[in-house]
Amino acid sequence: MSDRERKACSAIIARRFLNSRSYRSAQRIACYLPTWDEVDTRSIIAHGWESGKKIYLPVVDRAHAMYFAETHPDTFLTRNRYGIWQPEANESVRLLSLDLVVTPVVVFDDSGRRIGMGGGYYDRCFAYLNHRRFWFRPKLIGFAFSCQRTEKIVPNPWDIRMSQVFSDR
Predict the structure, then answer these.
(1) Looking at per-residue confidence, does 95 or 12 come out higher?
(2) E strands, the chain, where?
(3) Which residues sit opposite 126 in a β-bridge?
(4) What ranges make up the beta strands (E) of 63-99?
(5) In this structure, which long-range contacts are made by residues 87-91, counting pairs with CB atoms below 8 Å and at least 24 apart in sequence?
(6) Which of 13, 32, 98, 120 is the S-S candidate for 138 at Cβ 3.0 to 4.6 Å?
(7) What is the overall mean pLDDT for the chain?
(8) What is the 3-class SS of 10-38, one letter each residue?
(9) pLDDT digits over 44-56, tens only?
(10) What is the rounded CA–CA span in Å between residue 59 and residue 73?
């Protein structure tokens, strides 16, 4: 995709998400800051702050564990070992207190399966969701361009299914 196409498709995805019931009813949203080839989430983060929602970003620590820290417009960001922007060390939020987690996607299918960048961070962080009986929090929401859709992904036992995928088509 060209930069222009990526920007236009990101705007479509953001608009669909911001108009969704999932977003409107959520108060605590975890999101990611995009790399150059991912769906741009910065307008969603800004809208969340403007709407009084709490926004959290992923932090990868030295032990290769991922957690989420609350962030504000003036939060100091640093690049982690992968070059991804994250809040400087901050207190983590209880995962069960999150309403939504917007996840980056490399490939997805219509059954909510995703392939990420290959580090397994989201799958490890939310592994408890595969064993849930009574709780359904948080909902994992994927953001992907329609060109990233595939017919079927054969899941691994540790893969976490997304509740919904927002795409430009």
Answers:
(1) 12
(2) 28-30, 54-60, 66-71, 77-79, 85-87, 100-104, 107-108, 114-115, 139-143, 164-166
(3) none
(4) 66-71, 77-79, 85-87
(5) 87/57, 87/59, 89/59, 90/59
(6) 98
(7) 89
(8) HHHHHHHHHCCHHHHHCCEEECCCCCCCC
(9) 999 999 999 999 9
(10) 17
Contact residues for 27 (Cβ-Cβ < 8 A; gap 6+): 53, 54, 99
Ordered domains of the chain (ranges, CATH): 3-166 (3.40.50.10420)
Contact of 118 with 167, CB cutoff 8 Å? no
| Cα(41)–Cα(86) distance, integer angstroms | 14
For residues 80 and 61, what is the distance between their CA atoms, to the nearest angstrom?
8
* Spatial separation of the C-alpha atoms in residues 100 and 22, rounded to whole Å: 8
pLDDT digits (tens, 9 = 90+) for 22-40: 999 999 999 999 988 899 9
Q: Supply the DSSP symbol for 99.
A: S
CA angle 144, 99, 41 (to 5 degrees): 35
pLDDT tier, 154 (very low <50, low <70, confident <90, very high otherwise): confident
The SS3 of residue 119 is coil
